[in-house]
Amino acid sequence: METTQHQRSADQRRRELLEAADRVVLRDGPHASMNAIAAEAGITKPILYRHFGDKGGLYRALAKRHTDALLRALQVAVDADVDRRERVAGTLDTYLAAIEARPQVYRFLMHPAEDSQPSEAGFDVGRHSAPLLRRLGEELGTVIADRVDLGPGGDLVARVWGHGIVGMMHAAGDWWLGERPCSRAELVASLTDLLCGRLFQVQDRADGPGF
Amino acid sequence: METTQHQRSADQRRRELLEAADRVVLRDGPHASMNAIAAEAGITKPILYRHFGDKGGLYRALAKRHTDALLRALQVAVDADVDRRERVAGTLDTYLAAIEARPQVYRFLMHPAEDSQPSEAGFDVGRHSAPLLRRLGEELGTVIADRVDLGPGGDLVARVWGHGIVGMMHAAGDWWLGERPCSRAELVASLTDLLCGRLFQVQDRADGPGF
DNA sequence: CCCGCATGTTACCAGCGGTAACGGCAGTCT
DNA sequence: AGACTGCCGTTACCGCTGGTAACATGCGGG
């Protein structure tokens, strides 16, 4: 049947276009223009728009690939058969290793679309770097809810923790990637300590008010 | 002397322009155009550029005001004379109350510039929503380093924690503001529990692998 | 009186995302 | 064979953006 043949070649074309877009986004940053992407793919703008609708569509498709890949890696880490602290540390390390290995991808994923329709009021706040982080947070939240017994209302607490931990990981990783103040292992250790509650176990300084 | 007089009136003009920009950014979101801002101020584009250089300059000036205000509020919270847990909870609550009260401001602060010069390579990663979060993280890091005795290398750990905690607060707040899954007090309690290390104190579920 | 100077304007530029309208080139139906 | 139907691709354009050059205007001081 030629319909399937057409569809297959269309899908293949789509993948080629995505790979071209990937190359140019990785080279030029997230502000790459549709013209540039089309040129890299050896074609012109309108066919990009026929395939992806608009720039948001292209970027969404592009982001999904990388997001899925990262999510799979994190799944593996979070399912590792070690004790809890080791598992937390391993998950953090997996994420940090990923963003360390491909900072351009990471940077792209954090503000992929900038779509943000007018939205009438102020209730769509978290649209900026959200898609990946939201997915990660939600996913981690369900993992925590599944595995840890938090009592009544625990599911909500688990979601809060999921988003909070992901945000912690993200912010610390972002800062670390920019300044490189220490090794990855040290960063992982410090963050794991923080999640272990070391902040509330250490002593105040002798002088000054306590924290 | 007329130089001071000129300067004063120029500064005053600048403040008027900033207030106009504030109004239109709060009304139209961060994608407000320079034309719109100029129109709101009752003038035209070029004088905006004479005052602020480029859009990034205007947005930076605009962001600084709100950032400073928020920082002052957080300073107060972090200096409160209560025990450590209460102080952590109070600081979180101050931040969340601020973003709850003025989500438009918050939204603007999170991606103010989008400047991101070409940068040649990939080492300026965290430019997207960074300025405010970076400042908060650095500030909190020094506060922690000042007040808590973390032993040798503790300053670095404190900075990691500062950025991590700020990121946790940010991500959880962003998600919460979008979905409103619970009251602010509940959110604060859950996050404080997380920082207290409750994640490592609770039991595994009876079934399934532990976390 | 004219000069400098700041303030404001109009008119323009390059680039962006996005689209309409047209040109070939396959395969299909009669 | 020849007309018809879709699809891939193009050129040329639109409205809008951030940003700038060049020109007008009102002001105080030699």
Summarize the structure.
In chain A, 70% of the residues lie in helices and 0% in strands.
Topology:
The structure is a homodimer.
Chain A: H1 2-28, H2 34-40, H3 45-52, H4 55-78, H5 84-101, H6 103-110, H7 130-147, H8 154-179, H9 184-195
Chain A binds a DNA duplex (30 and 30 nucleotides) through helix 1 and helix 3.
Provide key terms for this protein.
DNA-binding; 211 residues; homodimer; elongated; mainly alpha
Write up this protein.
Two copies of one chain form a homodimer. The first copy, chain A, is mostly helical. Chain A folds into two domains: 1-53, Arc Repressor Mutant, subunit A (Orthogonal Bundle); 63-197, Tetracycline Repressor, domain 2 (Orthogonal Bundle). The first copy, chain A, is built from nine helices and no strands. In chain A, α1 (2-28) packs across α2 (34-40), α5 (84-101) packs across α6 (103-110) and α7 (130-147) crosses α8 (154-179). The longest helix of chain A is centred in the N-terminal third of the chain and has 27 residues, at 2-28. Chain A binds a DNA duplex (30 and 30 nucleotides) through residues 2, 6, 13, 33-35, 43-47, 49-50, 54-55.
Strand content of chain A: under 5%
Q: Supply the CATH class of the largest domain in chain A.
A: Mainly Alpha
What number of structural domains do the residues of chain A give? Answer: 2
Largest sheet of chain A: none
- Helix-strand sequence of chain A: HHHHHHHHH
CATH hierarchy: architecture of the largest domain in chain A: Orthogonal Bundle
Would you give the CATH topology of the largest domain in chain A?
A: Tetracycline Repressor, domain 2
Name the largest protein-protein interface in this structure: A-B, 79 and 79 residues
Q: Would you count the extended β strands of chain A for me?
A: 0
Mean pLDDT of chain A: 85
Low-confidence stretches of chain A at least 5 residues in length (pLDDT < 50)?
A: 1-5, 115-128
What does the oligomeric state look like here?
homodimer
Rounded to the nearest angstrom, the radius of gyration of chain A is 21 Å
In angstroms, what separates the terminal alpha carbons of chain A? 72 Å
Class of secondary structure makeup of chain A: mainly alpha
Helix coverage percent of chain A: over 70%
Question: Which outline of chain A best applies?
Answer: elongated
Q: Helix tally of chain A?
A: 9
Pfam families (chains A, B): TetR_C_32 (PF19344), TetR_N (PF00440)
Keywords (chains A, B): DNA-binding
InterPro entries (chains A, B): DNA-bd_HTH_TetR-type_CS (IPR023772), Homeodomain-like_sf (IPR009057), HTH-type_TetR-like_transc_reg (IPR050109), HTH_TetR (IPR001647), Tet_transcr_reg_TetR-rel_C_sf (IPR036271), TetR_C_32 (IPR045823)
Protein name (chains A, B): TetR family transcriptional regulator
